[in-house]
Amino acid sequence: MAMPRNQARSPFIAGLRLAALLISVFALGACGKREPESAAPAPDPASAAQPAAPAAADATRISELRATAKDAYIWGYPIVEGYKSMYQQAVDAKGANFHAGFNQIGNVAQVATPKDTSIITPNSDTPYSFLWMDLRAEPLVISVPAIDAKRYFSVQLIDLYTYNFAYINRAATDGKASVFMVAGPDWKGETPKGVREVFRAETQLAYGLFRTQLFSPSDLDNVKRLQAQYKVQPLSAFLGTPAPPPAPPITFPPYDPEQANGLGFFSYLNFLLQFAPTVDSEAALRQRFAGIGIEAGKPFDAAALPPADREAITAGIADANQALEQFIATEINTEKVSSADMFGTRAALKDNYLYRFAGAKLGIYGNSASEADYQSYFVDAQGRPADGSQHDYVLRFAKDQLPPTNAFWSVTLYDGKSKLLVDNPLDRHLINSAMLPTLKRDADGGLTLYIQQASPGKDKESNWLPAPAGPFYVILRNYSPGQAVLDRSWQKPALTPVERKAD
Hints:
Largest sheet: 5 strands, antiparallel
Distance between the termini: 41 Å
CATH topology of one domain: Immunoglobulin-like
C-alpha cells in the first residue's frame, strides 16, 4: 500500500520539533534568573521561519523521489521482467526452463504446458524455439527454411526494452528459404552478400522468439524437422573470415523474484542498462533517473539509503502498480486499449511506457498488431472477474462469425493468479481453429464453447475448456489477423455466465 506523503516525512519533522524544544529548555536553564518580559528582545520573524525551510525542502525532495521511482519502475519493469526469461532460458543451465546458451537456438518440440513457467501467458499453439543473442562482438546471421503456406511461422525479434524491432515471417521470406542478419547498436557495415535483410537492435542483448504452428499431435515430427533447419551463426562464420575479439564475459546475477519485486528491482535494472545504450529520445529521462541512482552498470544499494528514501522509493513502486490496476480496470477491461497498443516497435508505442508496462505485466513478448491480435477476457459480460469457483461460462460464436484470420485463431485459458496454463483432467488448455472438425456445432451452425470447472456432459466435452476452481482469464489470439479484426469491425463474443447445474 502506498504511504501517505505526510507520513513519509514525519520522522524528520518530529526530529525538528524535539530539537527546538531541547534548545528552548537549555536556554531557560542557562539564563538562570529570568529577566522582565519588557527587557527581552523581540523575536526575529526571519529566524523564526528558518526551521520550516529544511523541512519543506526535504518534503519536496521526498515527493520528487517517489514520483521518479514510480516512473522508473514503469519504464524499467519490462526490462527486468525480460531478464527473468533470459536468465532461466539462457543462463541457468541447471534450471528446468533452460534451453540453450547465448547465440544458440534451443528448440522445444512440444507446445507449452503448465510446467512451463519462464514466460507468463504463453501460447500453446506453436512450439517455440528460443535464441538469446549477444551482439556485442559481431552480428548474427539467422537462416530459415522454406515453409508451406498453410503453416504459420514467425521469428519475433525483441530488444531488451521488449520492443519488437523486426519480424522474420512469411511476408519477409515469401515462403522461401532465406537468410537475415541481426546487428547490435555498435555495428557499422553494409549488408553482406547472401543476406536478404539486416535488422538492427537498439540493445546489445536481444531475443529471437520462433513460433512454428502445430496442426495436431500427429504433426509434431513435421515441426521438429522445420525446427532443425533454423540456423544461427556469427557473421564471421557466415563469411568465412577471422572472428573479431570476443566481448568481455558477463557475470549474470541470479534471478530472485522476491528481490526483483522489491527495491532489488533497481539493482537488476542497473545491471541490464549497461547493455542498453541511451537513445536520443530518452536522454532526459535517463538523466532524471540517474538522480536517484539508476545508472547503467552502477551498484544500487538500497540498504545504504536513509529510511525516508527507502520508504519513498517503495511507495513509488506501489504507485506504479496502482496506476496499472487502474489502467486495467478503466482501459483494458473496457476495451479502450487492446494488445495492438501495448506491443510493437518503439515508434508504434510512441514512448507510452504505461502501455509497455501493462503488456509486460499481462503477457510479456506479445506480438505486434500486424502479426497477431490478442483479445482478453478478464471479466465476464456483467463486468465481474472470471472465476471458475463461482460460475460456469459460455463463449458463443454466431454462425459465420468465427474470428476472421489469415492463419489461425485460438482461445486459451490461464490461471488468474499464476498467469500460467492450468492443469486439468483433459490436459486441454485451448480450443483453436485447427480443432474445428472435432468440435460440435450448434443447431443453427454457431459454435458454443463451455468454460467451466466441471464437465458440461459427455455430449459437450469436445467443446469444453476446463477452468480452475478460482480466478482465471482467457485470451483470444488471432495470428495473421484479417482486416475485420484489425479495424474492429468484427466483434468478439461476450464471456457469458450461465446458471450452474446442481450436482
